[in-house]
Amino acid sequence: MTALLETSDLTLAYHGRTVLSDVNLTLAPGEIVTIVGPNGSGKSSLIRALIGALSPAKGHVTRKPGLRIGYVPQSLAIDPSLPMTVARFLNLPRRIGSAQVAETLRQAGVPDLARHQMTALSGGQFQRVLLARALLGDPDILILDEATQGLDQPGTAQFYQQIETVKRQKGCAVLMVSHDLHVVMAASDRVLCLNGHVCCEGTPEIVASAPAYRALFGTGTQGALALYRHQHTHSHGPECDHTHEAAE
Question: Residues 129, 60: contact at Cβ < 8 Å?
Answer without folding.
Answer: no
